[in-house]
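Hi C.,

You asked whether I'd gotten around to modeling the 138-residue construct. I have! Everything is below, sequence then structure, no commentary in between.
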Amino acid sequence: MSKKVLRVLSVISLAAAAAVIAPYCIRFWGAPLSLSPEAWGAFGSYVGGTLGPPLAFLGLIGIVWTIREQMNASRVAKEAAERESEYLARKEKKEEWQTIIEHSEKQIESFLNLPIQYKNGVPAGKLVHALFWAAEPQ
């Protein structure tokens, strides 16, 4: 929970407590503190009955806020995982194409390095040399 929200909920809680206890103090101001357990029980019942529902409502607000924050964090994590998955798929495809290109280069190189012969069986060198010789301007 952010500090701002926590601060607001704390102020509201303290204000609710003051709003409940202040009328009781005003009504019984100047009276001596009771030694009777029944009087303290009545006071506890009064405070619990009047302060409990607002504090429970603030607790509910805190829970709802926490659930919203968790949902947002989950959504952000899901989006990050999707982006990472897309990145990994693109990287895998790139590596696959690089492998194909490297394999093709090796095949072309081995093909160009094939030995060639004249019709009478005399070695004439490699195919790559014949191609360069054929490409020279006449």
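If it helps when you're writing up: The CA atoms of residues 112 and 129 lie 8 Å apart.

Thanks,
B.
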